[in-house]
């Protein structure tokens, strides 16, 4: 059973693009290859199409969503869509990348303003819970990417975990985070923390109405001190 | 945006069926309504169909998978399939329920043999990582359920979190787990722990080849003692 999970491993993703953060917007446009907008007006049109595509796929999912649905939400002509994207798959892939970047950019200022590593992770969680409560489609888009755009799905999680690992490593260097001896440790901790956040976001951000601050206080206590009395 | 995440909330699922553990196999058969097998031979045939369906959907996904694919894998006639299930949707729903129960049953003996709550969670994680390494299709099935069988998807996670919460609560009662004052605490901790396990399973069970014992040692250290030095 090769399946979409088998085979290629994680190395391919990192080798191919490095971290998403490192992507140079000049070099790599959100549009399909050779279709990057050349003017500010073109960039605004592309942004309208992406926002409309997010709405369309968020509401209808990939298979029910359509290019016509996207262009009518964006109020642009069908030909304008094809000025920027080759296909429904292409715009979906860009929506995944864009959504992943939106989550990152939403949380970044909170992290930048935190003096302490683990308290920063707590503030990032509150901010994430608030974000998903008003952007419920983020889960549907990223989760559907597992089937529609498996490489984009992996890349979202690999680059997110890499960012968390880099923050934890910086915290270890400053003595704010406990440093285990194993070289695996920071990566395992990063994936554990990301998994916590994703599931707390699903349960308490998308499904529930509990206070993000209260949920975070409990989760961050676990992260900082563990559950052993 | 109603979407599949909006609206019904979690209460409906708990009210409708309680915990999956509480399901009485006499009362609720895996087959479609009115199609429960009446003989031991029938039960074996149903089991063959379910195993074949797991393979079929695990390899091809729901939309590409077919009833004919299932019956030819199971080496049963098409009519035999319809003796037990009404549709492809119905057998997929049962595969989700069955997969969820298989994960639970695989981990249960490990938990039963653990004297200490948090060490038990560690042993359960090793066991889960080993299980997903040989059952990679578990992720594809459960994740695709989000789109094909959203109620089954929710129920899988809600009942899994409920089981973890019950174990943590028992640990709190015995003084083995730190008891926070908030009534939300145990539920948040359970979802955090489940999220950790799901993402560690994806990264280190399905995608990676790292030692389950080593990964678990690191994750369980986080769970027990936290990351604050």
TrEMBL record, chains A, B:
| Keyword Transcription regulation assigned | no
Pfam families attached here?
A: TetR_N (PF00440)
Q: Which InterPro entries match?
A: DNA-bd_HTH_TetR-type_CS (IPR023772), Homeodomain-like_sf (IPR009057), HTH-type_Tx_Regulator (IPR050624), HTH_TetR (IPR001647)
Q: HTH tetR-type domain: from which residue to which, for each copy?
A: 43-103
Q: Fetch the Gene3D superfamilies from UniProt.
A: Homeodomain-like (1.10.10.60), Tetracycline Repressor, domain 2 (1.10.357.10)
Q: Where does the record place Gly residues bias? A: 1-10
DNA-binding region in chain numbering: 66-85
Q: What keywords tag this UniProt record? A: DNA-binding
For region Disordered, the annotated ranges are 1-42
What is the name attached to this protein's record?
TetR/AcrR family transcriptional regulator
Recite the lineage of the species.
Answer: Bacteria, Pseudomonadati, Pseudomonadota, Alphaproteobacteria, Sphingomonadales
């Amino acid at each position: 059973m090769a399946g979409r999970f088998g085979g290629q491993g994680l190395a391919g993703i990192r080798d191919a693009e490095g971290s998403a953060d490192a992507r140079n917007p000049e070099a790599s446009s959100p549009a399909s290859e050779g279709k990057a907008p050349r003017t500010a007006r073109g960039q605004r049109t592309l942004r309208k199409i992406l926002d409309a595509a997010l709405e369309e796929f968020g509401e209808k999912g990939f298979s029910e969503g359509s290019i016509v649905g996207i262009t009518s939400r964006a109020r642009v002509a069908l030909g304008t869509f094809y000025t920027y994207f080759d296909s429904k798959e292409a715009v979906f892939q860009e929506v995944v990348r864009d959504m992943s970047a939106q989550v990152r950019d939403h949380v970044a200022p909170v992290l930048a303003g935190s003096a302490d590593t683990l308290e920063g992770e707590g503030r990032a969680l509150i901010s994430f819970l608030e974000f998903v409560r008003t952007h419920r489609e983020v889960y549907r888009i990223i989760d559907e990417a597992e089937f529609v755009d498996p490489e984009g799905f992996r890349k979202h999680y690999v680059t997110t975990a890499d960012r968390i690992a880099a923050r934890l490593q910086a915290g270890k260097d400053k003595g704010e985070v406990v440093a285990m001896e194993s070289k695996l440790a920071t990566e395992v901790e990063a994936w554990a923390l990301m998994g916590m956040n994703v599931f707390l976001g699903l349960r308490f951000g998308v499904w529930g109405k509990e206070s993000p601050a209260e949920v975070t206080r409990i989760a961050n206590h676990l992260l900082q001190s563990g559950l052993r009395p």
